[in-house]
User: Fold this.
Amino acid sequence: MSAVAEDREGGARRGRPRDANVESAILDAAVAIINEVGYNDLSIEAVASRAGVGRPTVYRRWPSKLDLVVDAVVRLSPAVSAPDTGDVFTDLVELISGTIEDMTSSSVGRAILALAGTAAADRAELADRFNEHYLVPRRAAFLATLRRGIDAGRLRADIDPDLILDLMLGAPTYRWLTTGHPIDKIAARRVVETVWSLVKA
Amino acid sequence: MSAVAEDREGGARRGRPRDANVESAILDAAVAIINEVGYNDLSIEAVASRAGVGRPTVYRRWPSKLDLVVDAVVRLSPAVSAPDTGDVFTDLVELISGTIEDMTSSSVGRAILALAGTAAADRAELADRFNEHYLVPRRAAFLATLRRGIDAGRLRADIDPDLILDLMLGAPTYRWLTTGHPIDKIAARRVVETVWSLVKA
Amino acid sequence: MSAVAEDREGGARRGRPRDANVESAILDAAVAIINEVGYNDLSIEAVASRAGVGRPTVYRRWPSKLDLVVDAVVRLSPAVSAPDTGDVFTDLVELISGTIEDMTSSSVGRAILALAGTAAADRAELADRFNEHYLVPRRAAFLATLRRGIDAGRLRADIDPDLILDLMLGAPTYRWLTTGHPIDKIAARRVVETVWSLVKA
Amino acid sequence: MSAVAEDREGGARRGRPRDANVESAILDAAVAIINEVGYNDLSIEAVASRAGVGRPTVYRRWPSKLDLVVDAVVRLSPAVSAPDTGDVFTDLVELISGTIEDMTSSSVGRAILALAGTAAADRAELADRFNEHYLVPRRAAFLATLRRGIDAGRLRADIDPDLILDLMLGAPTYRWLTTGHPIDKIAARRVVETVWSLVKA
DNA sequence: TTATAAACGAGACGGTACGTCCTGTCTTTTA
DNA sequence: TAAAAGACAGGACGTACCGTCTCGTTTATAA
Assistant:
């Protein structure tokens, strides 16, 4: 449920109701602008203007740029699905390279990282929202794949799935962050191969 | 070598030379402000004012806030030293928990991450400077420790040190980034323990 | 009618209307500052600050310092009244010495002259505004006095009143401009006496 | 004598003497820039740069923009010569229309007026210099013409030549200043004709 | 000759003001 | 009563000049 909707409950309000199209238009505009100029150079002004909306209308819904962008990123992020090719190893490579691709290819991906740092640092509530809508589904898909491997007897049952996740996603993310070099599928495969020996049954 | 200094070589310049104290004052001010309000809320205005310097003097040396902050962070970053307790395992735990502590405890650490994302994304030259002065020394200390382990016969000789580094540093970094939870020495030790089996001789 | 107001007509505007108090505060501040430091050293910055107003608020109404000062001077200039002592000769002396006094005694007077030169030179529209609100009323008072003299049979009916005006006001103005010496009532009387013989019936 | 030269007297100085070419170059540059952008938009920076000279070199000679421009205008102003067609009336028309033309046609002319106001107002010394080098020669030419008319018996001997001058030059100047309309030879002739009856023998 | 001293170009310095953009709040009309 | 429009105080932007101050270099006279 969106943070925006939560004040709707409790019966119909008086006066003109909020226009749902307005909300969409604002988030769409935010996404487009992030893609063009990145998180730092996004301004509420520009979002409102592109959405064909007054600035106060934006502020009425999101108290800050950070809040707005979190919702925009959450809305934008492509749905995740745990691939199931029948081979857990392949599934893991797919998942990781897909996730890294998400992170690194678009401005939105970079916004996500900017948000990750910022929100985690001082905005627990936002971090929670971001977690709930963005990270948790991705971790879940990953963990489901691991679980499938365990059930299939290909992975050891005593592993710490979260730690494995951190290793498999953290290593390429860190490489990208610190060197700026793109992470292709081959690099992703190498990481999975390396960690694989830790987890294989 | 500082980016600021590099055009000095090749004979005496004409005109009044730049004042090194001014450079120090500006970088010190930048560091202080980053620590107080973070990268995003740092303004050139505030830096100049705190440094007791005219704004144009800042712009004369660093064309943008990003350039300035990269140099400030580079100057600030504490010297790295590869610990050498005699036990490679302990050394690795120390190194990792120290590095993560660096990253996560101070505003400057968070600025570093913000920079990592931003600079990597669109400013190859800045990323290079940041790499050269900040990341490379840290990687070097880590790799030297691994090398010592190999020489001592405790680590396999055929490992890819960079990949091991990405795993050991990437996993806790990723955890911190995505959850915001601090990484203590125990968590660092768990990562090292896990990866250790990949690398032990 | 103020240049600022002229685009208000034609139905109610949307959005928050401009605050008339703000306009007053800015013009008052401009007048005060002209009186203190003169036209050349007046800065929009200082005007805004003294008026307790944001700088953009000033620019929203007047695109340049010149535009602002023209309006300020127009507002400031004391109302003119054609004196009517019953004696046209005395009236003329009063009018001239008063006008010259206006021009030369205050910083605003000097601003008026600076404006006269500047505005006339390259800003027809401003010159027109200045003319309409400042010069025309003064010319009118003068011409009315001449007309009274003609009606009373003391002045010739075939004179060119504009030319007489230029002579009576231009001579002392020119003297002041080119020598910087103040023009007192005695000097004004001498001019009127001299020109009088040209116009007396 | 130029204000610049006055500290030269008293024997040769030690050290490198000032370069007269530099002085010329600066004044030429100042004149050119006044012609292009006017007095208000002239900057020392631009003058120095165009003259191929360091800024301190300008300040060494002229303490302010005003001082510099006064000298520049003085240097620029075309030599005056009292025309002598044999007919005093024609001479006066020529003189007046020429002077007005000087004043109104060029940016330098407008600078002169700006200077007249500014310098007269608060800089007695500058006003004096301007007077001495610019105005006095022009008044002298005019007065010489009047004198010739008196000697020839065409003008009354008891006139106040300064007052006549103020009338004949002041009226068209004032007209131009207050209306911005150019003063052509016909307008100049009308003024002379009008005043003529005051002065003719 | 050799100092010494001033002028020169260049350009950095602490500043001020520029005119613009954006912030977050407010007031008004329209729906 | 929400929405759009837009004015408001304010803050920071990056730039242009200000007038002053080093610099290294050049060009004179004085020792």
